[in-house]
Amino acid sequence: MLICNMAPMRVKINTMTTQDKGSTRDLYYSSPARGEERKVNLSTTIVSCAVTLAIGLIIGINFESLSNQANRALTGKADSSIDFSSLNEVYETLVDNYDGKVDKSKVIEEAKRGLVNAVNDPYTYYMTASEYRDFTSDLNGDVGAGIGVEIGLRENSVKVLRTTKDNPARKAGVLAGDIIYKVDGEDVTSLDTEGVAKKLRGAAGSEVKLTVVRNNEEKEFTLVRETINNESVYVEYRDKTAIMTISRFDEKTGELAENLAREIKDKGCDKLVLDLRGNGGGYVDAAVYTASLWLDGMTVTTAKSSNNSAYNRTYTAKTGKAILKGMKTIILTNGSTASAAEILTGALKDNNLATVLGEKTYGKGCMQSLETLTSGDVLRVTIANWYTPDGSNISNDGISPDKVVERSYDQINKDIDPQLDAALKE
Fold it and tell me: What is the gyration radius of the CA atoms in the chain, in angstroms?
């Protein structure tokens, strides 16, 4: 399975994206953010994680077979010339001397992770079959119940980016900008956004204790999880202006967007604000489908691989679906607009069909493949880079808005939206 990914940096606790086999997809999971050190003491958890990872990196039961499988998935061929005897020696020495029991299945699992982590690519990683099932459920938005927050990595800490209306977190007083410190008393500062998200989710009606750091002070909240509406596309109207929000690109997004586009035209709207803020990605073909509402048979994005020409491909908009062609369009973006959302933004911007307003996007311009192993485990591997219609790869740089308008955490918490206000005045 081919995928093109993000945004690694943000996770909506109750709103994820999806993928299925046989399609090129864009996932928004995630690379570690770069920046300042965490503001919370991480020493204990880091040491623990380091020990576990070290074991995984160096140990191998049947390691040669394992490595050949992983290398075959990564490069298309096994490299039997690598000598892993030194790693087996480490394992044997560990078993002979460690004052405790060595879990062989855990050793194998961590060895796989270590092998894949060796390429040092945040978008390439190993998932067990169970983790993959959770992953696809997340991407489908099928996450059960949660507390109604969007989280992401900022300054090397997992922070609340915003809370959703009429949901537990906002009602309890959780604010955008809060650093997530503990969940049910467990320090989660060593986890990425996906790991924190899993801790916060659970059965509807169950309680979860959330500890955050705000202005260098700890604040604790006891929240009751709720099932949250998870539509990926919705619209509201301000006179003759439609505001279409796309929170992710899942397998239903294109069709939903098309239906709403027809509704927008039927209502006689003459302007559209396309809100992609916080949209970390999803299916590439969902982004292409959505782009087809403006672009009629035109290039949306191009994938290029330096190692395998089979992955080279031009993604073209569908014909006959350009319902919104010619309508004045303003796209709202921020630092969490990533991947598939950047593909759509770049396609409309490069073709002069939309004005981009807000803040620079995340900058995720590479594509991954999901490879199922014989064990049922899955390798996600970076296999190509994608480019906007004018030939730009936006990795690391992101897409700069035509008009820069910033929005602070304080404004988010007070429901003040200078970006939307500016778009409505365009």
Answer: 22
Greater pLDDT, 251 or 391: 391
Sign, CA dihedral 187-8-330-394, equals positive
Q: Which residues pair with 219 in a beta bridge?
A: 212
Distance, in Å, from the CA atom of 236 to the CA atom of 341, rounded to the nearest integer, reads: 20
pLDDT at 152 over 70: yes
For the record, the structure tokens of 226 come out as 């709720």
Q: Residues of the chain with pLDDT > 70: what percent?
A: 79
**pLDDT given for residue 17 in this prediction:** 29
Q: Write out the two tokens for 262.
A: 């027809």
Beta carbons within 8 Å of 169's beta carbon, 6+ residues apart: 147, 148, 149, 160, 163, 210, 221, 223
Q: What is the pLDDT of residue 96?
A: 93
**CB distance 292 to 321 below 8 Å:** yes
Mean pLDDT of the chain: 82
Phi-psi region of 420 (alpha: psi -120 to 50; beta: other; left: phi over 0): alpha
First to last CA, the chain: 41
For 54-63, what is each residue's pLDDT tens digit?
Answer: 444 443 434 4
What is the Cα–Cα distance from 184 to 171, expressed in whole angstroms?
Answer: 19
pTM of whole model > 0.85? no
Nearest residue to 175 (alpha-carbon basis) of 215, 205, 203, 138 = 215
- Quote the longest CA-to-CA distance of the chain: 77
Residue listed under structure tokens 């992401």: 152
Q: Give the contacts of 263 (CB within 8 A, at least 6 positions apart).
A: 235
Compute the distance between CA of residue 215 and CA of residue 361 in angstroms, rounded to an integer: 27
